[in-house]
Amino acid sequence: MIPGVTAETQTNIVLSLVIIVLALLARRGVLAVVNRRIEDSELRYRWAKASGTVGFIITTLILAQVWFTAIRSIGTFLGLLSAGLAIALKDLVADLAGWAFIMWRRPFDLGDRIQIGEYAGDVVDKSLFQFTVMEIGNWVDADQSTGRLIHVPNAKVFTEPLANYVAGFPYLWNELAILITLESDWRRAKEIVEELAADQTIDITREAHEPRRQGEERFLIRYRKLTPVVYVSVRNSGVLLTLRYLCRPRERRGSASALWERILDGFDAEPTVTLAYPTQRINLSREVLSEPSQEPGPPPPEA
Q: What is the residue-level pLDDT of the chain in tens, covering all 303 positions?
């Protein structure tokens, strides 16, 4: 017996501890079975997250019934609880609502590359109050990882624009700006770039033309042209060839590097094409002034 504590309260404390211990043991038992039968690490992770969430909800409801026996209707209890939380913990309630929205509408899933507000990265974790992304970009160019983990509150899905790099259409349009001199044969340069880009992206273009899976048909996305295209424009220092091509989200930098290597080799073998760079031209020629005449001039007038 604990002095100053009623017998009913002590019973509730003991019962609560037993319920929590049983819930933990049940979750560990489930995970032990899952780890023995499932080798996929991602599937194990999903089981661990789901069992933790379900166990937390069930344990909370049972403990609520233990400690709030006067409230016989669970609906009444949940109503009072939600009202109190809405006032005292509005941010956490918003995060819970965001979690429900993420689980229901699935704007992104584990492994997706997303950008929400100013943060971008690969989703590596989802929980009741926040999700975690492995950051890309920032001080690193071309959407490559920085190695930092960013924890984003779930409520951000209601207040910030969210971009998914892979949902619906799992490719990105990337562009390379290639500047050649005004004296170059721009038609030949355009042919070289188109041929190299078509050969580089032939597998991705064929894959993108294939029918999409059922899960990717949530959005009405239709492109008429998926092959690489080169646009021509004129700049002060040369002719600009803008190559637009498809690539996978995580291969943007690698694909650009491979294309640049092939383009440089192609231009090096073509004497009529030269890359442009900032230059200055100075004209050193000048007019030659005639020497002054040596003949004497007219005599000055007499005074």
A: 556 556 777 777 788 888 888 888 888 888 888 787 777 777 777 777 777 777 788 888 787 777 766 445 555 556 666 666 566 667 777 888 999 999 898 899 988 999 999 999 999 999 888 999 999 988 887 788 899 999 999 999 999 999 999 887 889 999 999 999 999 999 999 999 999 999 999 999 888 877 665 545 566 666 678 899 999 999 888 999 999 999 998 899 999 999 999 999 999 999 999 999 877 767 676 655 455 555 555 665 654
Residue whose entry in the numeric block shows the structure tokens 């995970």 = 31
Can you tell me the distance from the alpha carbon of 231 to that of 224, in angstroms, rounded to the nearest whole number?
17
- HEC string of 189-219 equals HHHHHHHHHHHHCHHHHHHHHCCCCHHHCCC
Q: What residue type is 47 in one-letter code?
A: W
Q: Which two tokens stand for residue 213?
A: 């899976």
Return the bridge partners of 115, or none.
120, 163
- 125-150 core/surface letters (b: 16 or more CB in 10 A; e: else): ebebebbbbbbbbeeeeebeeeeeeb
* Cβ-proximal residues to 147 (8 Å cutoff; 6+ apart), any chain: 134, 135
Q: Other CB atoms closer than 10 Å to residue 108's CB: what's the count?
A: 23
Contact 208, 171 (CB under 8 A): yes
93, two tokens: 């309630």
Q: How far apart are the first and last CA of the chain?
A: 143
Q: How far is CA 195 from CA 46, 188, 230, 253, in A?
A: 45, 11, 10, 20
CA distance 105 to 98: 10
